[in-house]
Design a protein that fits this description.
Distance between the termini: 28 Å
CATH architecture of the largest domain: Roll
Strand order of the largest sheet: 16-20-15-19-17-18
Structural class: alpha+beta
CATH class of the largest domain: Alpha Beta
Number of domains: 3
Strand content: 15-25%
CATH superfamily of the largest domain: Dipeptide-binding Protein, Domain 3
Shape: globular
């Protein structure tokens, strides 16, 4: 693949400009691009193109370097540049590109990956994930589960302050956790700690998390957004406007949010990790068009991003201006159905569509074999992956037509599916649309920006929607969030007493092997009931300019920028 050239980009100083305007960003790119035809995949055939691949260990892939410091962010892979802990250059302003603008800066309310990436700069969590994806200390230095399994005691890090000067302590943990589970607020975080009933302050730096029933994966939840700690004083001061005024303990302090354009954060001079961060500022820039985003990386206007289009992986891998990380992921792309109304209230209809989709053809033509076709919710990297599920591994239009008839739609039907307006997302939706024509099902497409798509999902204003979920190795949070009939995020109207019983059993099963066996049953049940048509396990891709030094890959898939320096 030829690499387009770009005119030299003007240097943008975030403190002076308040962030990159879209007009100025586009002016910096003297590039043009085209889109490849998808004839083979649209027809459901597997013909095709030689697949570019990226293999860890290449000149632009990171080297494995275990981190022994659990007080800092831990990870398995370090991008080329200064090693963590080495002498790093202070200063520098970088721009982080992602698929859309933020939706909210209040961690209690968000379900969007674009928000989570920003939270990784502003906030810290009670726990983090280590190099193996296991829970390690964060703002909580240690913890233990009670003998009766109905509480966890957290011993907190001392000497940490929020950006507004408020002390981080057990009272702050109580305020945050009890806010997350408040039934009057009905925040999505509640679904990730479903058996937590409250917090008891034992002393200033000891908090006890109270449970209604055992919850063995509590600390996994606290290593995610649900473990994010917000200043209690800011919660009281801003109320509903906290969404625009985030105050955490993290490496960067919130400076401004220009709606529809960027979020700017600046160095926390009082950060609790000695010597960090190195950067002066980070600008989080929403850019829906991945071509514009990648061209911004090439011109040097954007310095870091993630979710690199599969078609670009091969060329970027060999480009000496970049550091490219490609790893198997626990993410899942799916066509999600609204089961609350016809025709998707019928399992036979959902199964019919799923039997028609040629996942292997899509993987080859759209994703160049960088990921894996998906026929279940849990990926090969998840605890509880079930490789015995045979449903939908091949297409069967004859079976699909029989299922349509059994579901009351013998002549086919028409519906609308929503998708984000990013090029790769649109191509996936178009491929599925074309394949469904084989069973006389017409799928109209509604293209939306990321913020609007999420709003329509939460409001249940959809027939079906293409979307991606980025889960963790421990899958409880995703299983509970999307498929529990008691979930605050139950927007799909999937109800299965059998699933709910298995979920409750998993939450109380401490042995990983035994819990994995339960998850395998749940994965098989979801494939059979088909509330989503599972499509694709994408690779995790992260791309950084060569000037970025000291970056460490984290199993939580966030780009943590506290150890990063910028050699301009």
């Amino acid at each position: 693949m030829d690499r387009p050239t770009a005119s030299p980009a003007p240097r943008i100083e975030p403190h002076q400009s308040g962030g990159l305007s879209r007009r100025r960003l586009l002016q910096a790119f003297a590039v043009a691009s085209g889109s490849a035809a998808l004839t083979a995949v649209l027809a459901g055939c597997g013909g095709g193109t030689t697949a570019p691949t990226a293999t860890p260990g290449s000149s632009t892939s990171p080297n494995a370097t275990p981190s022994g410091d659990t007080s800092a962010r831990t990870g398995t892979l370090t991008a080329t540049g200064a090693a963590p802990g080495s002498q790093a250059k202070q200063g520098g302003d970088i721009t982080f590109g992602q698929g859309s603008d933020a939706t909210t800066l209040d961690p209690a309310q968000s379900t969007a990956l674009v928000d989570y990436q920003i939270y990784a700069g502003i906030f810290d969590t009670l726990a983090v994930l280590d190099a193996q994806g296991k829970v390690a200390p964060g703002l909580a230095e240690s913890w233990e589960e009670a003998p009766d399994h109905l509480s966890w005691t957290l011993h907190l890090r001392k000497g940490v302050t929020f950006h507004d000067g408020t002390d981080f302590n057990a009272s702050a943990v109580k305020v945050n956790v009890e806010r997350y589970i408040d039934p009057k607020l009905n925040f999505p975080r509640k679904g990730e700690i479903p058996t937590v009933t409250g917090v008891t302050v034992i002393d200033p730096y000891t908090a006890r998390i109270e449970l209604s029933q055992p919850f063995v994966v509590l600390m996994y939840s606290f290593a995610s957004v649900t473990g994010t700690m917000v200043s209690p004083a800011a919660i009281m001061k801003y109320g509903d406007d906290l969404a625009r005024n985030p105050v955490g303990t993290g490496p960067f302090v919130f400076k401004e949010w220009i709606k529809g354009d960027h979020v700017l954060v600046t160095r926390n001079l009082s950060y609790w990790k000695p010597g960090l961060p190195h950067l002066n500022s980070v600008t989080y820039k929403g850019i829906a068009d991945t071509t514009v985003l990648i061209n911004g990386m090439k011109s040097g206007v954007i310095h870091a991003t993630y979710s690199v289009p599969a078609k670009d992986v091969g060329a970027l891998k060999s480009d000496p201006n970049f550091q490219l990380i490609v790893q198997p992921s626990t993410a899942i792309n799916a066509l999600r159905f609204n089961l609350a109304s016809p025709p998707f209230d019928r399992k036979e209809i959902r199964q019919a569509l799923s039997w028609t989709i040629d996942r292997a053809a899509i993987e080859k033509a759209l994703y160049f074999d960088t990921g894996t076709p998906a026929n279940s919710f849990l990926s090969p990297r998840n605890l509880g992956y079930n490789d015995q599920i045979s449903l939908y591994k091949t297409t069967d239009t004859g079976k699909a037509k029989q299922l349509l008839a059994a579901g009351g739609q013998p002549n086919g039907f028409k519906f609308t599916a929503q998708t984000s307006n990013g090029p790769e997302a649109v191509q996936l939706a178009q491929a599925v649309k074309s394949q469904l024509e084989a069973i006389n099902v017409t799928m109209d497409l509604q293209l939306l920006d990321g913020v609007t798509q999420l709003q329509k999902l939460v409001a249940k204003q959809f027939d079906a929607q293409f979307n991606q979920f980025n889960g963790g190795v421990e899958p409880f949070q995703g299983l509970n969030r999307f498929f529990s009939s008691k979930s605050p995020l139950d927007v799909y109207s999937y109800v299965s007493p059998q699933f709910d019983d298995l979920l409750a059993k998993a939450s109380a099963t401490g042995d990983d092997g035994a819990r994995a066996a339960i998850y395998k049953q749940m994965a098989a049940l979801l494939s059979e009931d088909c509330p989503w048509a599972f499509l694709h396990f994408p690779a995790t891709t992260q791309l950084l300019r060569k000037e970025i030094k000291g970056y460490v890959f984290s199993p939580d898939l966030m780009l943590h920028l506290d150890p990063v320096s910028y050699a301009s």
